[in-house]
Amino acid sequence: MTAEGQRRRAFWQILLFAAGLLVLTVISAGSVYLVNKAREDSKWVVHTIEVENQINALLLEIRRAESGVRGYLLTGEDNFRTDHEKAVAAIIPALDKLTRQSVDNPGQRENVEKLSTAIETRLSQFAQEMAFIRQGQPDKATALVRELAAQDATARIASVANTMMREEERLFRLRTTNSDRSQTLAASMTGIGSGLVVVLALISIWLVRRSARVRDEAEARLREAYANLETVVDERTADLREANDEIQRFAYIVSHDLRSPLVNIMGFTSELDELGGDIFRRIGSLAHAPAEGAPLAPAAPGEIALEGGDKQLQEDFSEALGFIKSSIAKMDRLISAILNLTREGRREFQPVKVDTRELIEAIVTTLAHQAAEAQAEIHVEPLPDLVSDRLALEQIFSNLIDNAIKYLKPGVPGEIRIRGRTKLGYAIFEVSDNGRGIDPKDHQRIFDLFRRAGTQDKPGQGIGLAHVRALVRRLGGTMSVSSELNTGSTFTITLPIAWNVSNRNRDR
Questions:
Q1: CA dihedral (331, 335, 336, 337) positive or negative
Q2: Which of 56, 328, 379, 424 has the CA that lies 20 to 30 A from 250?
Q3: How confident is the model at residue 383 (pLDDT cuts 50, 70, 90)?
Q4: Which of 475, 356, 17, 386 is nearest to 204 (CA)?
């Protein structure tokens, strides 16, 4: 699949995920809203039923009170009086409860006020009737009953109650309709949402299966390409090793063959030096020869009495000969270094368990005299152990510590610190100092063969760090430097904790 196809597929997957999340959010929010609304509508339906029940209960208590007073008037039995008193006692609480239940409806509040007035009137009439009966004046009580019947106070109470009942019935129908609608909408939204979720799930399954099929095909192609790549890499690696071996053999042959003419040059330079001495002694003796016919005065052995142009010629000859000798010595050192590098490159590494702290402390002991002369202190902190080539590690750390001592700032007490830690199967070593430092523009230069940085006031051929980095790479690690001028340097080496036969000589 092309990059454009992958981006398009990723876009549609993200869009599908966003759509599913949006649908779920809308369904959840809508369902919560509709369920709450249905619950609220149902609550109002129940409230309407409670108000209707409370009106009926109030009317029932009023009828009980009327029946009790009339029965007591006709029979004089106490059970009618008791029943009347209980009914009267229940009327006011029932009216208060109805008042609280109707507080949300302004129309019903007005009806409750009318009902309260009629009920108060009727209760006072009940009290008068019961008072005549208790006083033994049943005729007056009977006349009062007839008079009140003509005023029809109970009918007014019933009329107001019927008005309230009709209003509650209207509200009941309206609220029932709203409740049914809310429940229907909630059920519809749940069904539609469930359907959308199912559709999105099916689309997701289709996309996942399609992605899995594409991924399997890509993995198959990748495995095939990887197999081909391994073959190509093995071929290239073999070619590189053969070329590297050829380069090392060539470097060894060239270095070895260069030494032979270099030895001849060194020999003839020595002879030229002796011959020059003889020539300039001869010139000196001729310059001091006596007059014609007089014998030559013998010159003292080793003495050359030259003056003027002859003396300058002798000095120029000696200076040129000195340059030749120093160049020969430098070339000899470079050839020796190249020979050592080629010999080291042919050596096979042997992984062994190395106590790194013990190894570095031994190196520090051998460099103790140089450190004392440079007024430097070397601190070795706890270090992780390795399975690696011991000789290569000795060469790496010996070179770094020796450089740290060599390039300290004059007159400043040196402090060199070696520390280490582990991370993800690798050991990380740091060799830091407070020396003269390295300009950032020279950080890569110092690892090049025969290249040096900074003031060249110390002996060396520019091979050490290049050799160290080559060894680190052969051990499967990396090397870097962090430094600024006059602030010291820190060389960081990362090596595998367990370097084994599977990667032996991998970088040769």
A1: positive
A2: 328
A3: very high
A4: 17
